[in-house]
Design goal:
This protein is α/β, with parallel strands linked by helices and 505 residues long. Helix content is 44%, strand content 14%. Helix 3 runs parallel beside helix 4, helix 11 crosses helix 20 and helix 14 runs antiparallel to helix 18.
Length: 505
């Protein structure tokens, strides 16, 4: 990587004397004051303890994107670039997850630790979460990113507790690391605190953890790394980054005061809206231990999305997103943020939810709405219901039984199938279903597209997670340097806070 301080400062005004002397920047301001400012490297942005704990070069996470969009290849390339990478294992079958983990292990150096997989709360699929945790434990997955949790589950606690032990000095060691992705302080507090006694007692009584592990889990936070998820693609509360980060920081200090836990043990990172050097620099300036990118990696060549879907992403602007019902929590009214430009998915999903909320069934709809629905589904409603029923009998027989007797419930399950298939069609690139693609996307994707327009990163064939990560981190270092100079009293022009992507070899 180019570490030239001169190049980082190539936009400084001419009447400011800037040069490097023995590796330290020496500047002279307009009033002839001499200033010495140490170098800033991308590796120094964020919390050094984070990189050390997870074996990374940069405090940068290539985030998990569910159902395999964050592929094993993406994780491998993230690790090779010096970042932390998470496999998008949420929603995949255990056999597929196992194959993905094996691929990751085969593609990285032995002993490399800066990778993990996604664990998603799955109330609609009883037993699935436990099965995935068992798989992670058996395969030595030491880092999981826990997402979509509103409250702690026994499986998250079990994963943490089974990795706890004491070293020779009596200190508690942690082998299993949970990254909690949260957008609310009340949820974050649960991960910042030790595990609840009730959950620990139940796990011990079921012989799922030992009494010794329960004792240790009662003394340390469930998670040491929490990702503040601001306005992002997929599941999101559309929170603004700065208020959210501040809220979680306050919650951390309050939890520390209440429990006696060292507040400095808990690292808060920031994701959502991280798409340009400005976003990265701002996150670190706020005090983020690390940054996490999501949407922008979907258009990268390592993504699990099809090329047609990636091309749509590459054309998006910051406003080309909308909210649509979530397939996994349709009845509860939970929404996900998706790409709006080039698809009809968001509009169709919202109408489906409106019909459900009105208490309708297919049989009680107007003829016009029935024709619309079957046109969207692409086949008769009864045929889709039979396919849905067959799946539900395997995954959740109680839900299937309810739907047999309740037409409104049948409509909900069929709608959930359509929403689910929208994401599947986008991954597979089904040509005649392009208008129904569900592509998780936040405004950050549009900001990234604007930043790379006219550069080598504009074509999607040049977008790799390595080029994206290095450009964001190098650019953030440049902006941080310019801000440091301005804070030191040096006249720095506004154009010093701009940078253009460059190709890293």
């Amino acid at each position: 990587m180019d570490r030239s301080v001169d190049q980082i400062l190539d936009c400084v005004r001419e009447n400011v004397d800037v040069h490097v002397q023995n590796g330290v920047l020496v500047a002279k301001s307009a009033d002839a004051r001499s200033l010495s400012l140490p170098a800033i490297y991308p590796e120094w942005l964020g919390d050094a303890a984070f990189a050390q704990a997870h074996g990374a070069r940069f405090n940068y996470v290539v985030g998990e994107m569910a159902r395999g969009i964050a592929t094993p290849r993406m994780v491998i390339e993230a690790v090779r670039a010096g970042c932390v990478g998470f496999y998008g294992s949420a929603g995949l079958k255990p056999d597929t997850i196992q194959a993905g983990i094996q691929e990751i292990k085969a593609g990285i150096a032995q002993g490399q630790t800066s990778w993990g997989a996604n664990l998603i709360h799955s109330p609609q699929q009883p037993g699935y979460e436990a099965e995935v945790v068992d798989l992670f434990l058996s395969m030595g997955v030491r880092r999981v990113s826990a997402s979509a949790y509103m409250r702690l589950s026994p499986e998250v606690v079990r994963y943490t507790a089974l990795g706890l032990s004491r070293d020779g000095q009596g200190s508690i060691r942690r082998a299993n690391h949970v990254f909690a992705k949260v957008s609310r302080a009340e949820v974050a507090r649960q991960f910042m605190q030790p595990a609840p006694e009730k959950i620990l007692r139940a796990l011990v009584s079921e012989n799922r953890i030992s009494p010794e592990q329960a004792e240790l889990a009662a003394q340390v936070p469930v998670a040491l790394d929490l990702t503040a998820e601001a306005d992002s693609g997929g599941h999101t509360d559309n929170r603004a980054a700065a208020p959210l980060f501040s809220s979680l920081s306050i919650a951390r200090d309050q939890v520390a005061a209440e429990t006696g836990i060292d507040a400095n043990m808990i690292r808060i990172g920031l994701g959502g809206g991280i798409a340009t050097p400005h976003g990265v620099a701002a996150a670190f300036q706020m005090g983020a231990a690390y940054v996490l990118t999501g949407s922008i990696n979907q258009a990268a060549i390592e993504s699990g999305l099809s090329e047609p879907a990636r091309q749509l992403l590459a054309k998006a602007g910051p406003a080309d997103v909308g909210m649509a019902p979530a397939a996994d929590m349709f009845e509860q009214g939970v929404e996900v943020q998706v790409l709006k430009r080039g698809t009809l998915f968001a509009m169709r999903g919202r109408k489906l939810h409106a019909l459900y909320k009105a208490g309708l069934s297919f049989e009680t709809m107007t003829q016009k709405d029935r024709a619309w629905l079957e046109d969207v589904l692409g086949e008769p409603f009864d045929d889709v219901w039979q396919k849905t029923r067959a799946f539900m009998l395997q995954s959740n027989p109680k839900e299937a039984a309810r739907a047999e007797a309740d037409g409104n419930k049948r409509l909900a399950l069929v709608a959930r199938r359509y929403l689910f298939m929208g994401a599947q069609w986008a991954r597979e690139g089904v040509a005649d279903k392009a208008s129904d693609y569900q592509i998780w996307c936040g405004p950050a994707q549009g900001a990234f597209n604007e930043w790379v327009a006219g550069t080598f990163l504009e074509p999607i064939e040049n977008r790799t997670v390595r080029q994206i990560a290095l450009n964001l981190m190098e650019g953030a270092a440049r902006l941080t340097r310019a801000g440091q100079m301005r804070a030191a009293g040096i006249a720095v022009p506004p154009t010093a806070f701009s940078c253009t992507p460059k190709r890293f070899l």
